[in-house]
Design brief:
The complex is a heterodimer of chains A (about 150) and B (about 160). Chain A has a domain of about 90 residues: Hotdog Thioesterase (Thiol Ester Dehydrase, Chain A). Chain A is about 20% helix and about 30% strand. In chain A, a hairpin with a 5-residue loop joins strand 5 and strand 6. The longest helix of chain A is centred in the middle third of the chain and has 16 residues. Chain A starts with 13 loop residues before the first strand and ends in an 8-residue tail after the last strand. Chain B has a single domain, classed as Hotdog Thioesterase (Thiol Ester Dehydrase, Chain A, Roll), CATH 3.10.129. Chain B is built from four helices and five strands. Chain B has a five-stranded antiparallel beta sheet. The chains are: A alpha+beta (about 150), B alpha+beta (about 160).
Chain lengths: ~150, ~160
């Protein structure tokens, strides 16, 4: 894991996220926490049906659970250094199901200095236990010039 | 646009089928038209529940004394609390709750943190809709504000609408 220090960060540096065990209970808890009770996440009978050309075969995790895990990884990395999580863009590539273990990770892509601040762009991805990428995207973190670890 | 504040007095309807017939389908959604939204009082309990669901342990979100001594001078919510706010600030007949709505991707920009006790408001609309590979898409445009009118975060998302 690379230290969040603007001066020393370089393309290719990595950020590790926490492993997250997905279960019917974790999905149900996310329903309660997000108020998203879409039957995609609750109702196995409903999920036996087809969605266009897709059949999920059972309930799936909320895509935004991936988003929340990536955001957690970024803030845990950035906040102690006085850096700020400013943007996150994600898309979902594969469904995540009960029994899967997923883990987010980041790779520094670029640094940018603007008129008033300093920025780091990070490629992010979430992989499952088979090494398949289930979500991918890009994040932007601000390292204000006065940040303590900057 | 805003109605009565959503609160514990009006329990959240967790059966998304119940009001399904009241909701707009893809054909009815007019890009540019504001969505009906509800102000929502964000509580420390709701923040703690979100933290538990994704394993957030940062004291800035959970430990009042530590947060008070930290950079924000008090407890804040994690940036991704908009995941909750999206459903908390929209009424039961909003099309975000249509069963079978599939999230196809999101991007969010963060300005200032939400805090426990904030009354959050949402300005939201569909910005665009299109058809791709036999699927019906809507592009969402959302901005959350606190009670002072400050932007907390803004986001754009795409959903695939149920057929």
């Amino acid at each position: 894991m690379t230290t969040a220090n603007f001066e020393s960060l370089k393309a290719g540096d990595t950020i590790d996220g926490p492993a997250f065990a997905v279960s019917r209970e974790s999905i149900r808890l996310f329903c309660d926490a997000s108020l998203d009770y879409n039957p995609l996440h609750l109702d196995d009978n409903y999920m036996k049906g087809d969605f266009g050309k897709t059949n999920f075969g059972g309930i799936i995790m909320h895509g935004m659970n991936n988003f929340g895990l990536i955001s957690r990884m970024l803030t845990d990395w950035a906040l102690p250094a006085g850096a700020i999580h400013r943007r996150l863009e994600t898309r979902w590539l594969k469904p995540v199901k009960p029994g899967d273990t997923i883990r987010p990770a980041g790779t520094v892509k670029a640094k940018q200095i603007s008129a008033k601040s300093r920025w780091v762009l990070v490629d992010v991805a979430v992989q499952n236990q088979r090494g398949e990428t289930v979500a991918a995207g890009e994040a932007m973190l601000e390292f204000p010039p006065n940040a303590k670890a900057g | 646009m805003a109605q009565a504040e959503s609160s514990a007095a009006t329990p959240f309807e967790t059966d998304f089928w119940k009001d399904a017939k009241l909701r707009k389908v893809w054909d009815d959604i007019v890009p540019g038209e504001p969505r009906k939204t509800l102000p929502y009082k964000l509580t420390q309990e709701a923040i703690a529940l979100y933290c538990r669901a994704v394993g957030e342990t940062n004291p800035l979100y959970l430990d009042e004394a530590a947060a008070k001594a930290g950079p924000y001078g008090g407890l804040i919510a994690p940036p991704a609390i908009h995941i909750l706010l999206m459903f908390a600030c929209t009424p039961a007949d909003d099309w975000m709750r249509s069963p079978g709505t599939v999230n196809a991707g999101q991007s969010w920009s963060y300005s200032i943190p939400a805090r426990p006790g904030d009354t959050i408001t949402l300005q939201a609309r569909a910005l665009d809709k299109f058809i791709k590979r036999e699927r019906l898409f809507v592009v969402h445009d959302n901005v959350f504000f606190n009670q002072h009118g400050d932007v907390i975060c803004s986001g754009r998302g795409q959903t695939i609408r149920p057929m």
